[in-house]
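pasting for ref
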Amino acid sequence: MVEVREWSRSDTARLFRAPTADDDKYARGVVALRTGSPAYPGAAVLGVEAAWRSGAGFVRYVGADRVADAVLARRPETVVGADTGGSRIGAWVIGSGTDPTHRTEAETVALREILAGAVPVVIDAGALDLAPGARAPFLVTPHAREFARLQERLRVQTQDEDHDRADAARQLAAKIGGTVLLKGARTLVADPGGAVIAVEAGTGWLATAGTGDVLAGVLGAVMAANPGAALAEVAAAGAWLHGHAARIAAGALADGPGHPIVAMDVAEALPRAIQDVLG
């Protein structure tokens, strides 16, 4: 069995701070997202919303015009269009709401350029196939089925169907050369060095479409606000905050069962979740 560190509220608090009079929008973190598609524009809207709600000082969106219009309709503060080098990007989020089978060659080239850079990247959903060989520091965020596909792609063997998830995450992180966040009721974060963190702060009501897109935006914001921090700790803090926001949104902070939520509810509860952490 792999030794697993349990992540806590106090651990999360180390990666959050209230801005001071000396901070500007750049100091609070610049997040760029290349997410969503005409088929799934909502993924971009949710990720951008979550990045803003998680405390980012500047959010840039790069994508198809139809998707960019949806992003601006919801969050007009967002800067849309390719970066010209002046926005000091601290983290990229790529892949949410995209399908690699429908990705153009031009889009693949653009994503590979991001993954060849020095800025850390959250790699989600439709960009997971590009993670092997990435040179940028990166964090992949697969759910169980995506995780199994990555294992198959990288020929990571497990002993049986009931294998230890922590060991499987550790093996994949070592093989891929990046940090792995394996989503689930008990989220696991593994770094390439073999350390594994477990995060249990959510609610079963999180099992609904779009919450993974929200998580990607949260992770981008935490990453951008904490340059140089260990990506495993960034991932664990983002996952904890995301889960806590879901509990707030679902009314599941006490012993009651809570109630259904949608992904935007989680994004809108993020400021309250951060307030709780800072408190």
